[in-house]
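It is worth pausing here to work through a concrete case rather than discussing structure prediction in the abstract. The textbook approach is simple: state the sequence, then state the predicted structure, then interpret. We follow exactly that order.
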Amino acid sequence: TRKFAEVKRLLNPKVLAPPKKEKKKEEDEVRHVEKTSSALFFKYNTQLGPPYQVLVDTNFINFSIKNKIDLVKGMMDCLYAECRPCITDCVMAELEKLGAKYRVALKIAKDPRFQHLPCSHKGTYADDCICDRVRQHRCYIVATCDKDLRRRIRKIPGVPIMYLQAHRYSIERLPEATMGGAPRG
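Step two, the predicted structure:
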């Protein structure tokens, strides 16, 4: 009877019939292609220029404290130009949530040299906030040490990334015409 069941399975008409092809839903859907910014000349961002606006992330402040680097002075040493560090409400909220251990970072973020940028969206996830702001206005350099955020920012053309490397700041994807002698990543 075991042999009979195996043969019956092989001869089953449902198995032998070719599978029905489903209509492709992808053809019906409209593809969304992101518009290219008018500030870009190929990959060169024409909106970037001194004084640079540097959008700072939570972990960039924390790593700067650990490496004993003054944020504004370190940025000026890296870019050889005046820099205005900018901090969003989401990053401030993230620093406040971290508690007493990061109170020095919060104190640095409340420095009057920092430009505070208000957020109009729901939630306080800083990475999404920074990505959205940079997509809308490509006049920022993003300062972060977070690998996931750096990977997300690299997908946005014309946005340079500042990060810590060998106890000093480095810049990635800033055109050499605007760089002077800044260390490259």
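Step three, interpretation. The chain has a mean pLDDT of 82. The chain is about 40% helix and 15% strand.
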